[in-house]
Amino acid sequence: MAPKYLSLLFALASILVIEASTLGGKATTLGGWKPIPNLKDPEVVKVANFAVAEHNKEAKTSLEFVTIVKGEQQVVAGLKYRLVISTKASGAAAAAAPKSFNAEVLSQPWKKLLKLLSFVESRN
After folding, report:
1. Is the pLDDT of residue 2 over 60?
2. How far apart are CA 37 and CA 12, in angstroms?
3. pLDDT at 24 over 50
4. Residue 16 DSSP class
5. pTM of the model
6. H helices of 1-124, where?
7. How many helices (H) and strands (E) does the chain have?
8. What would the pLDDT profile of 76-116 be if each residue is shown by its tens digit?
9. Distance of CA 17 to the CA centre of its chain
10. Would you call 119 exposed, middle or buried from its count of C-beta atoms within 10 A (0-12, 13-18, 19+)?
11. Distance CA 98, CA 84 (A)
């Protein structure tokens, strides 16, 4: 009796996976990177500010967040953000031209976790 239920369960799970990967008639990659539609969303801006502040602590720099130039997110065990962030120097170097950085941040709100995974200067 159990193999019959397992076969049915497997068939239903397969249908769900196929259906989920073709949402809205468009093929999507489950767990793939997707563009962030609103770069001014308060949660996304919070993540970008966190990335700059965390980089400042780690690298002993004094960059200031200006804006988010581009962003993608990926659903993992939480959300992973891949952002291009425009910054400016503060203090004596404030007159310097803005610089862009590629940042990757992991967000797990149920753990109250934001973790900077990488922060490197963009090569434009």
Report:
1. no
2. 32
3. no
4. H
5. 0.74
6. 2-20, 42-59
7. 2, 5
8. 999 999 999 999 988 756 667 899 999 999 999 999 999 99
9. 23
10. buried
11. 13
Edge-to-edge order in the sheet of strand 63-76: 34-35, 63-76, 78-89, 99-108, 113-121
- Is residue 79 classed as helix, strand or coil in its secondary structure? strand
Among candidate residues 86, 60, 85, 91, the one with its CA nearest the CA of residue 72: 85
Q: Answer with the residue of higher pLDDT: 87 or 21.
A: 87
C-alpha distances (whole Å) from 83 to each of 18, 31, 37, 89, 101 are 30, 17, 13, 19, 8
Residues 43-64: what's their mean pLDDT?
A: 97
